[in-house]
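Target protein
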Amino acid sequence: MYYPSLFNGDFASDLFDEVLNFPVDYGKRLRNEMLDKKRCTTDIKEYDDKYELEMEFPGYDKADIKAELKNGYLIVSAEHVEKKDTTADATEETEAAEQKAEPKYLCRERFHGKVERSFYVGKDLTKEDITAQYANGVLTLVIPKKVSRPEGESEIISITD
């Protein structure tokens, strides 16, 4: 935000800069807010012997979420794909009917795409050390604090219900 000349610079030029930059600044703020909505919100709790990560994935199926341990990083990703009905055989007539039947969105806020977060957990952990559970749209990962293991390659962590 620009301040009058009392605080910094010239009031007239600050006013014109603010008015002229309004669409640009507003677009940046809107884009940043949309990017924040795409990210999975995460709470990290610390206990004496472990860490617990709770990540929200509302509307995702368990099969859409992948937790991977690679080079000391815990990488959690999820992909939300828009589902279309593909049960009918495709003929020209049915394709024309399907095109007419598609809705016109007035407002579309749900995100379809891929989100990914990574956390450094140390190179001593293996996939057996980390437990993962997915229930009610929340993925809970429990990571022990100290484990001494040799370095390994990428390992996929299984998620339970």
